[in-house]
Amino acid sequence: MTSGDFTRRTFLGASAGAACAPTQAAATQAAAAQAAPVAASRVVAAIGPGPAALSLSVNGMAHRLSVEPRATLVEVLRDQLGLTGTKLGCDRGACAACTVWLDGAPVCACMMFAHDAAGHRITTIEGLARGDALHPVQAAFIAHDAMQCGFCTPGLAMSCAALLEREPHPDAAQVQAAIAGHLCRCGSYPHVVDATLAAAAARRGAGE
Ligand code: FES
Ligand code: FES
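Above: the input record for the complex with FE2/S2 (inorganic) cluster. Below: its predicted structure, written as tokens.
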């Protein structure tokens, strides 16, 4: 395969499950995909080109779907499951608006084929709250005015909530690192950091 053969499909295949990351990291992934063709590292059964059966676990619910192999996870979440809280911005791994959890880790849902999510636990912003009780990060975003237009907010909330799962005592630098790669055209970053630190304190206070 030459660099001229590199396509969106080879990039998505090589980066399936990759965490949302800054643009530089996405570029590095692209370079790695060019250097190491997918066929050399992954052997998968051929499906398509028409829709194929797919079972997805989303927010604790099992869904049996018929999905074209080319469909990305964000497309299926939004268009087939109606979970429009996950936003589609750049559609190329550069803004993190589409961030969801894959087995608890934040990933860009535009950078993953839906079929590659089979067998994994997917959590979207709709699954973050516990019943009528907002997740501490969601509540803190509201209390700290951590949004303006709100387009980037679901993705940011998913990354901040994931941070608190792995680090209950984050400092500001760790929050900033967790949201690196998220683009907020409204410039809400300082409030997002404040909100996440407040959410961490609230969780500790509640014994979570
Ligand atoms: S990174 Fe997925 S929409 Fe921008
Ligand atoms: S609040 Fe508008 S893009 Fe972030």
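Notes for the reader.
The chain has eight helices and five strands.
Strands lie at 52-58, 61-67, 99-102, 105-108, 121-123.
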